[in-house]
Amino acid sequence: MTKRTGECAGPKRQSIGARRNPETEAAILTAAADILREKGVRGLSMEAVARRARAGKATLYKWWPTRGALLVAVYERLKGEHPHADKGHLLDTITDFYRFVFGHWQTPEGQVFALIIAEAQSNADVAEALEGYRRERLEALTEVVSWSVERGEIRPGTESRALAETIMAAAWMRLLTGRLDTDPAALARDVLSGWLVEKQ
């Protein structure tokens, strides 16, 4: 069987404005990541990043119109791409998904995501950027779920997007409540219970 992959870690964002210089972009994101480690989310400003990266502030705003957009871009760079292979059955695929995100969110780089969520509660720009990120992840996860629908693994009438929302919500809830030690396989079974067609 040919393995398919869903970019659950997310497709690369399209450049905003003029074509980006890769070296300048890398310098800006590295500078922003360093400031995040040193001063936290509240200490990250466009001015501080531009100064450390020796880049024009206009360049930052051209590529990332808001501080929130830059924060999410830094997180995506720290996370890297992790295409989730279609394991042949949704239960195995989602177990693998939970195993990856729970492991990543426990690393120093992954902990940035919880800080971004917290900042989004009081900052509209960060909230908007986070919602854009959530929608991208949801679309990728919906595609993964749709493959299982095609295989007849899911109960008839199930909407792929609704199930993907449930899968994602369970992961984010574990992050926000400090339960990243949850067993990925057990959680996948609990979340998918009632959605999957029982094997004969």
From TrEMBL:
Ranges of residues in domain HTH tetR-type: 22-82
Bilayer-crossing regions: none
GO molecular function: DNA-binding transcription factor activity; transcription cis-regulatory region binding
Residue span of region Disordered: 1-21
Database matches in SUPFAM superfamilies: Homeodomain-like, Tetracyclin repressor-like, C-terminal domain
InterPro entries on file: Homeodomain-like_sf, HTH-type_TetR-like_transc_reg, HTH_TetR, Tet_transcr_reg_TetR-rel_C_sf, TetR_C
Residues within the DNA-binding region(s): 45-64
Pfam families: TetR_C_11, TetR_N
Keyword set, alphabetical order: DNA-binding, Transcription, Transcription regulation
PANTHER family, per the entry: HTH-TYPE TRANSCRIPTIONAL REGULATOR RUTR, TETR-FAMILY TRANSCRIPTIONAL REGULATOR
Name under which the protein is recorded: Transcriptional regulator, TetR family
Organism (species): Celeribacter neptunius
Lineage: Bacteria, Pseudomonadati, Pseudomonadota, Alphaproteobacteria, Rhodobacterales
